[in-house]
Amino acid sequence: MKKLAANTVLCMQPVPQTIVSCRDRNGRNNALVVGFAANASLDPVMVMVGIVPSRFSHHMVKETGCFVINLPRKSFRKEYNYLGSRSGRDEDKFAALDLKWEDAKYVNAPILTDCPVSIECSVVDSVMPGTHELVIGKVEAVHVDEEYLDANGTILWDKMDLM
Question: Among 137, 109, 91, 98, which residue's Cα sits nearest to residue 23?
Fold first, then answer.
């Protein structure tokens, strides 16, 4: 086995292709692609996303204390790439893409309704170990398109064709 430099590749792959949506205090929506997302706790249920502090959405999540994790299908690739390559400082990405969204039920952030899974989160903590601030969110609600649930309410992950 060949040893590679730590910065050659991200240490663990695959990671979920994740879009974080948020809203500022003035009601402006934004969304960004994040490269770091993971489960953080089973009880209480918490997740973690990594956001570079210089990103436009960082201050939104910090000031409102909430965000939504959206998991896109492969058919959402064009939008995903756009959200990951543009800044909300320069344009309204929701308007530019004509994104479909609705207000989250428990947090003050938008849910991207073209994504089959959306997870509403309230920020409980964060840590700055390096380039990304790791924001830990308590899961307030999970929204899943009904076609991806079995009769017991179990999520059928393999049926979604996620990115």
Answer: 109
Cβ atoms within 10 Å, residue 133: 19
110: left (phi over 0), alpha (psi -120 to 50) or beta: beta
Nearest-angstrom CA–CA distance, 7 and 126: 23
- Please classify residue 55 by burial: count the beta carbons closer than 10 Å to its beta carbon, then call 0-12 exposed, 13-18 middle and 19+ buried: buried
Over residues 120-144, the pLDDT tens digits come to 999 999 999 999 999 999 999 999 9
Q: Give this prediction's pTM.
A: 0.92
Domains along the sequence of the chain with CATH: 18-159 (2.30.110.10)
3 state DSSP class of 132? coil
Paired residues of 36 in beta bridges? 50
The tokens for 81 are 């790439």
Count, residues in the chain: 163
